[in-house]
């Protein structure tokens, strides 16, 4: 047995699972840059192989279920350390018992994966509520763009892309995951994920806040402050419904923007 080290992609993870069956059993699977060497067994760096990944992907869909495949992908999107081994254990168990794995919710291997999936789903729902857009434009003038900054614990931007692409179908928009330096770019119902540094548009043009945005933010903050009833302020309740870690990018808390 050995530890498999991969490049952090979903295809890389599936390639490691392939090697578990056809090369040597995996003691564990770890992102290459986060691995701590073990004294108990060696390690092997696995190069991502799309053909091998496709074989595992199709095997999961055919021998377990498409539903399980979706759960596995959602678990992979989590920011939880050790998710790879939870996924590996789920896949091994799923290949043993087949499609019924989806109904064995109390089994440890299934429960561990579903707990991670639930956390990812919860964060997706919060992003739908707490994303706030600013109106930006290309430096020197040009079309206006809705821009939002987020810092989710889990990699959920692809899970919210369709919602915002449909809701703002006539407005170009960017939702920027700062911690992962990536973003979804959407316009007229279409969207894609790309690397993004937050300073330039995908075409390389520098972007800046529109002239009216600062005024709109000030007006929204004033409105938010005036409708609040100070005697009924309940910080504990507010934190329960709107976790503090999201406040940094909320207009009404930190400097208004357009509410999604």
Describe this structure in words.
The chain is an alpha/beta fold and 260 residues long. The protein is 44% helix and 19% strand. The chain is built from nine helices and ten strands. The protein has helices spanning 10-22, 50-64, 66-76, 83-97, 108-130, 157-167, 213-227, 235-241, 251-254, and strands at residues 2-6, 26-31, 43-45, 132-138, 144-150, 173-177, 182-187, 190-195, 207-209, 258-259. The strands form two sheets. Strands 4, 5, 6, 7, 8, 9 and 10 form a seven-stranded mixed beta sheet that branches. Helix 1 crosses helix 2. The longest helix has 23 residues, at 108-130. It is globular and about 60 Å long. Mean pLDDT is 86; it is low at 255-260.
Question: Uncertain segments of ≥5 residues (pLDDT<50)?
Answer: 255-260
Question: What's the number of extended β-strand segments?
Answer: 10
Give the count of helical stretches: 9
Order of helices and strands: EHEEHHHHEEHEEEEHHHE
Shape: globular
User: What structural class should be given to the helix and strand makeup?
Assistant: alpha/beta
Largest sheet: 7 strands, mixed
Radius of gyration: 22 Å
**Overall mean confidence score, pLDDT:** 86
Helix content: 40-55%
Question: How far from one another are the termini?
Answer: 49 Å
Into which percentage range does the β-strand content fall?
15-25%
Q: How are the elements arranged and paired?
A:
Layout: E1 2-6, H1 10-22, E2 26-31, E3 43-45, H2 50-64, H3 66-76, H4 83-97, H5 108-130, E4 132-138, E5 144-150, H6 157-167, E6 173-177, E7 182-187, E8 190-195, E9 207-209, H7 213-227, H8 235-241, H9 251-254, E10 258-259
Helix pairs in contact: 1-2, 2-3, 3-4, 3-5, 4-5, 5-6
